[in-house]
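Sample log: SDR family oxidoreductase.
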Amino acid sequence: MTATKRKLAIVTGGGSGIGLAIAEKFVQEGIRVVITGRNQERLDAAVQQLGALCHAIPCDLTQLASIPALVQSVIDQHGPIDILVNNAGTNMKKDFTEVTDDEFQQVILTNLTAVFTMSREVVKNMLQQEAGCIINISSMAAQYGLPKVIAYSASKTAIDGMTRAMAVELSPKGIRINAIAPGFIYSDMTAKALDSDPERKAKVFGRTPMGTMGQPADVAGAAYFLTTDAAKFITGVVLPVDGGNSIGF
């Protein structure tokens, strides 16, 4: 496969966690990847880890006015965009009545508005090719009610609705849009949080039929599948990757 024919993907929040795992999977499959994020050190480490097919552009997606230039710079440097993974996100755990208007808006800005703006700018490019694939990262917080994450829940539920609306409008033009809803995925942070709360840990594993936490690579595998011809007739779905947690009892 020549360099000119390799697909190009943007993965937001690609410097760590699920975003890094998706970028790594794409690179393994010969896809060129541009990762974005706010932490330059993380981005540099990711590029070093993933090699020549990975490039990084530091950016703060909450600065909405900078997104068109960001997308244009990707196109100028690397060519047309085939895949966009909207992975960057933030969470805030707080009692409902303690959440301020500014805190609520900040989560919505990062998890929803920036996803819209990024998608809009990338879609303008994809429409010229009459082809493209967008993957939004949703959450189990959109599948059922979780306490103390009201802004996050609102943002991810909106992502699901936006995924369906985009799919209906854009699929006739060759652009597929899907979402992935990860369950409890292993990270140092989640492991520490569960280990410090045995009751919550028991609840998590008790309602996950597979009885384990997922790995970032599990989400990455699903993301890659959704970009391939094997998924060419799949659009507008929200795919749970959760060991059965969302249907567990």
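Observation: Residues 3-186+216-241 form a domain with the Rossmann fold fold (CATH 3.40.50.720).
Observation: Strands lie at 8-12, 32-37, 54-58, 83-86, 132-137, 175-182, 238-241.
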